[in-house]
Amino acid sequence: MAEDLSDVALWSPSVRSETRTDGSVLVWQEEPLGPYPRCITERFMDWAGKVPDRIWIAERDAGGAWHETSYGEGAARIRSIGTALVGRGL
Prior knowledge:
The protein has helices at 42-50, 71-87, and strands at residues 15-19, 25-29, 55-60, 66-70. By secondary structure, the chain is an alpha+beta fold. The chain is extended and about 55 Å long. The N and C termini lie far apart (54 Å).
């Protein structure tokens, strides 16, 4: 049975463009930029707070066994790395 995708909202951007004499093309989005995170880890940490036990990433080892890391475990590792970098003056 095929999935019904008729209710999927697709983005229809409003853009303008300019082709310059050197062949370069500049493109602008007409609509204002929507909200975005302050830093790259902001959304990750948000998920870690909401669903800390949910699997974030998993990989198989050479023997085929899965090794999983939850959002909560990932957040703890990110904080540890950040603390170590700050402690080194970076």
